[in-house]
Amino acid sequence: MAVLLVRAAMAFAQQPWSVDPSFQTAIVTENVNSMVLLDNGQLLLSGRMNFTNNPLLNNYGLIRLNANGSRDATFPNAPVAAGGGNVIKPWADKYYIIGGGGGLQRAHGDGLRDLSFQLPADQYFTNETINDFFVYPDGSVVVVGLFSLSYETEGYVGLYNMVWLTNSGSVDLSRPPRRGGNCDITKIVQQEDGKFILSGNCVFWDGRPVGYTFRVDPSGVLDTSFVSAVAWGDAKSITPLFDGRVILSGLLKTTFSSQDTLHFVRLLPDGSIDETFNNELEIIQIPWELPLWPNEPIYWGQFTRPRHQLISDGRIAVFGPYRTYDGELRRGLAILDENGFLEPDLDGPSGCGQFAYSSGTGEIDYILGSIIGLLETGDGYIYVYGSFYGYHDGTTNYPQQRFISRLYGLDVGIAERRALPPLQPYPNPAGGTFTLELPLNAPAPLELLDASGRVVHTQLLRPGTHSHTVQSALPAGVYLLRVQEAQGVRRGRVVVE
Predict the structure, then answer these.
(1) Burial, 155: exposed, middle or buried (Cβ in 10 Å; 0-12, 13-18, 19+)?
(2) Phi, then psi, of 427 in degrees rounded to 5
(3) Alpha carbon of 124 to those of 160, 168, 336: distances in Å?
(4) N or C: which end of the chain has fewer CB within 10 A?
(5) What are the Cα distances from residue 497, in Å, to 202, 432, 433, 479?
(6) pLDDT tens digit string along 361-394?
(7) What are phi and psi of 7, to 5 degrees?
(8) What is the pLDDT of residues 295-350, one digit of tens each?
(9) With the CA atoms of 362, 365, 371 and 375 taken in that order, what torsion angle do they form, in degrees rounded to the nearest 10?
(10) Which of the four CATH numbers 3.30.980.40, 3.40.190.10, 3.30.930.10, 2.60.40.3080 does domain 415-496 have?
């Protein structure tokens, strides 16, 4: 009977969103901004991380953790390792990483710097800052931010905001650079049709007026068929959907003078507001002063910049330093349905805790307690990361969890989901296009995940046919295939050559 009780308790603990206590980091300050799962089970982290109580010393932009969260002390500092600080994006068996100073480097699969990729160090190209980028299958990159060019012979002189680089890092002038002027582009995301959604603070693009969020064709030319209803604001996350709609989250307004601040919207393919979505989602941010949690949250609407991403069951995760969503308590993380309405997951005490941060003066500068990102991996886990001390999974509080918590995934502990037959794509290996034979009674989201656990392709499979063609432009590699049905999850693997 005792054995049965222990097994029952273990099964109960391993529910979706519950903490895996075998994983714990020793990071003391300040934030984890991006992370990937390496092929050997280790984690590569980018941010501003410190393992001491002195934030003025020993800060690391890129570190490597072992599978249990302990620090890999053999991982060297830059320049042997790549520099870090901001976003990590996988490419083939390597990674592109934006550093804290706005530079771009490439790392090998173990996080060490790949010196075959170097930004230009000459009088023709000055990188003011790289804010975001998109990687093509051949390893070439389009970067956005602010750049000073001096290619007089070719006619590209002055400030530009969108520049193409070869897979060795040199400027590719066969693709004309684009500009809005003395402004900044902070986000670039590619749609299924190859067009890009851009966001920043530019009001012109190649001499034509634009709002802060706009769309360009694959060569960077303004797409006038898309006029975003979000004319002003800071979009922190952008998710193009399969049908041409786009989800934005951040600090958003329809006009600069509007008194109605939006934080989470869905746009139709022409850029207008999708009225079937919960565009008025109210998000309450914690105060940036004492006392520590618990306290009465106050509304800091002008500073509320949530982030989001789609999760494997088709719903939306929204995260940031927030404590209530549409009047209901959440702590840094909330789950919404596909139309932006709050789901019951992670209610009550669930979520991250807070800590008082000091820059070394002895005085408390501000209170941190934020989830910055979420990583679903193919091995059934969800990692949440950011700036926090302590994590509560709704059942148990884990005060020693810091900066990253590993949670059990959405299909853990559900026998029916584990029992579904695997997917059998053909041909396999494939050249990027393959077929699935799968009868469906309802639409089902399909995802392809790379070796790091990052979702690199999404597609909605429609009912009414047994045969589904999946088209992707992915680099060579092995990918996890996942289809979410009402009764559970089907998985498979496909090799792209």
Answers:
(1) exposed
(2) -70, 160
(3) 12, 16, 47
(4) N
(5) 40, 8, 10, 11
(6) 777 777 788 999 999 987 789 999 999 999 999 8
(7) -65, -40
(8) 333 333 445 789 999 998 889 999 988 877 888 888 899 999 999 999 888 877 88
(9) -60
(10) 2.60.40.3080
Structure tokens at 351: 């979520």
Residue 146 near residue 184 (C-beta atoms within 8 A): yes
Look-up: residue for tokens 């007089």?
A: 152
Stated as kind and residue range, the H or E segment containing 437 is strand 433-437
Helices marked H in 287-333 — which ranges?
none
Give the mean model confidence (pLDDT) for residues 189-217. 95
- Express each pLDDT in 399-427 by its tens digit: 999 999 999 988 765 443 444 678 888 89
Q: And the tokens for 489?
A: 């999850």
Question: Cα 338 from chain centroid?
Answer: 18
CA dist 220 → 132, 237, 242 (Å): 15, 20, 21
